Amino acid sequence: MEYKVEAHRIMSISLGKIYNSRVQRGGIKLHKNLLVSLVLRSARQVYLRDYYGGICLSAQQAREWCEGEYMDSEQDKLVPGSTESLPESDGQSEVAVDKQEPSNVVESHAALDVESEASGEQDHAENGVLDSGCSELKTPEESPEASPTCEVSNVENLHEPIVPHTCTNRKRSADDSELTDSLPKKTKVMSSTLISKNDEKKAETEEMDTSNVSSLITIFGSSFSGLLSSEDGAQPDSEAEDSDSGQICCDQMLKNLNPWSTAIVAF
Amino acid sequence: MGEDTESSKGNHSFLRDYVTEADVISTVDSTTQENLLATGDKGGRVVVFQRETVSSLLPPTSSHLLSSLLPLPPLLSQPKGELDQVGETGESGEYNVYSTFQSHEPDFDYLKSLEIEEKINKIRWLPQQNAAHFLLSTNDKTIKLWKVSERDKQPEGYNLKDEEGRVKDISTVTSLQVPVLRPTDLMVEVRPRRVFSNGHTYHVNSISVNSDGETYLSADDLRINMWHLGITDRSFNIVDIKPANMEELTEVITAAEFHPHHCHLFVYSSSKGSLRLCDMRASALCDRHTKLFEEPEDPGSRSFFSEIVSSVSDVKFSHNGRYLLTRDYLTAKVWDLHMEKGPVETYQVHDYLRTKLCSLYENDCIFDKFECVWNSSDSVIMTGAYNSFFRMFDRETGRGVTLEAWRETSKPRAVLRTRRIYTGGKRRRGDVGVDSLDFTKKILHMAWHPEENIIAIASTNNLYIFQDRVSPDTQGPDLGSDTI
């Protein structure tokens, strides 16, 4: 659970930095903001993973998610033993945990996961890049406690994957030693970003936006174009609430969304 | 430990009266100059120092400078014959202010409603071709070529102007004279010769003069342009990594440099930790690299901050052109141009910070961009750290030393004492604990004389100059003694 707290803290700090950079002298520093956004995505990934883990462990949802995962062709690449482990998704987090490194380490920045989580339709195998980070999601310990908040996905839909290609590379290199376990696998599936998404899913995503997350989504949704637009002088109003919106949105999502609603594909 | 804390507290109050934001040195260069050193600061000023080669001593004329002579520790010294040029008093070689000028002013981009900082990001000297010296200085957007020349004669005896320059009344002129040149006091004149503007959309982070002496490159976050020193209204774009959709941006250019001998080769580093060597003969737009130098990431050391820590902050060719030196947040790496799969040497600069990345992220220190330099023979590399420490690594032995650039602990002509960071094990007196490091005292900018063992270290608003001196009085390595 402390990972969630740490990740949340880092997210707040990062958002604060992005916000402050818009008012500092000399204009926006592209390099620094790029790095901050990478950290933000990593933190978000970890943060959402915690909730996600909770969802997976919840019996009903877990089974249903698992079924969808079978169809994920991407899994085979990274999750050799996935099919067997599926049935165990309900309870056996330990499997996944063993080999995984101690957390707090969020590798793959590839922000994608964020979106991927939103998009993680269990029924649709994503062709999209699976963020390696997803596979590393090891939250077995925390999963029982986490309420099945699907804020996961919604928060994520924010932004289209910033670097699908990059993600892929990272994933392959980093995940070789990684565990493929039911839990991580699921997360990965869920989080797989959609490069090819259903129109249906897209529609759902749009409907799912709540006002709570809208500001945060706007920020991420605009991502660098948002940064650039402020370089150009334009400043979305929602940016003023960067720091707060993250927290509000996450909390709200936790309470309001049910697991199925999270199966929303971002874009 | 106690004494360290006290001394640093004392120094803070002393410095507070003198340090202003605008005096913070932001770049140092002496690459092609034997006797000149230039520093740029955040206020847009450039200060040029000259090394005295005669034995006369002149006191420093600028109050915010510190220039001292200190021998380097013998373990790294390389005695050379030419160091014995000392005059009778043995005091030659001291650097003094040669000239100061305002290079850039704060500017405003009306189209984007953005302020353009006057901070000098980089200065590069040009190879000397005649009596005058030329340097390029750049802020975020504009590069300027300055001519630094001496004048020791002045024409006198104009017919139409009097001595003060006022125009004479023609009716008072009764005879004609030929103006003559008369010797005057030495004056250093600095004039802007070229202004290279509107070349960059993003912030310029590097400039590098080509070995052909005619062109130079300037790099910003996403593009690299090549300019001709004589042409200011156009430049060639040779690298463009801006993606069609900015939301797909994954890396930016962090530094770039031309090869010291081959005028068609240059290298640029990225925020992902990779280096790309480009050959301009291959194509006009060098988006496709000739060589890509990248070290695979260690999956065991992933963290939230892995990307930030692997971003390369500086890249330098060795003098012989065979190696590259890069600096990322925690390490300095030497790469062989013939081997792309990884560095040939990796030096840990301050690995004890690896566990503190989160707090360094909060206070923005993790974004600090440290520079690195080679010595003249490419056998020693040097880079900066925190707490006014800087590190030198001897490539042959792999050993590194930590030295300090801090006026309270450095007396002129004293031997520089090596420092240690306490990270566990037996603690010696004088060791500094990791938690007592002052992260506001960072050594980001430095320069090494192109031929001799003279280094310039910029620490906040002070410039420290250290020289290696061979003399019978040199003591042995002074590692164990306590100071002050």
TrEMBL record, chain A:
Matches recorded under InterPro entries: IER (IPR008653)
Superkingdom field: Eukaryota
Residue ranges, compositional bias (Polar residues): 82-92
Spans annotated as Disordered: 76-149
PANTHER family: IMMEDIATE EARLY RESPONSE GENE (PTHR15895)
Protein family according to the UniProt entry: Belongs to the IER family.
Name this polypeptide is given: Immediate early response 5
Gene responsible for this protein: LOC109889075
